[in-house]
Amino acid sequence: MAESRAGEPPSASTLLAGTTMLVAGVGPGLGSQICRAAAAGGAAVMMGARSTDFGTSLASELRGDGERAAFRRCDVTSESDCADLVAAAVDEFGGVDSVVLNAMATGQPALTLEEGGLDEWQGAFDVNFFGSLRVVKAAIPQLKASNRGSVVFIGSQIVRRVFPGRGPYAASKAALLTAAQVLAKELGPAGIRVNTVVPGRMWGPSLQRAIPRLAAERGHTVDEEVGSWVDATALKRLATDEECGRAVIFLASEMGAAITGQTLDANAGETMQ
Length: 273
Hints:
seven-stranded parallel beta sheet, Rossmann fold, alpha/beta, 2 domains, globular, single chain
């Protein structure tokens, strides 16, 4: 019989104490909230993204608050960049205990397969699907060396409600859900857990910037557009990017020690699976 891991649950400030989390795809929305939550939980955070300005600034901010954080530019379509990001985490913090895959390419909105070529599909898959797998593959030796290895993919609610013209993004994120379950089986014997967080509409900088455009496309005012989203949720409010970031931390931490191969929807009850 396997040894029981039951015991006193850690406090929020020690959920990830003594560990290193690698986050690929750090921007001003969910990516930054994951990093902040990980640092608040006691983890050292190695951040990677294609754009350097924001990641460098966030790492500096976290270090200024006394946290352990570093940034390295990483294009997840480059195998060498992914390997270098993992190596940087090892050099800086001694290893990698958890990996979060938040890099995202949506493709050109409203472009159907008939209207466009396959380049949009290939581009989305190269970032969302293969990019995520490149990072995980590079990190597997470190995750195996950890006694609490964890991988968390960031999915999308578009796999629950598909729309015409969003095929590249939806299909690549759907493929990632299955890949997470395959990897949970493959890596489970090494004690590595693999799960997915599927956010809904997240109230945060990215959504706030997009609201005027989305409202105009539907002939709504901004208030009408946001109101329709709120009405569709069970909680009658939108989940925030900070709350979705906490869901990631839960799965990466020992609080989720018995959870693998699962998908956690964080959407205030907008969709239920």
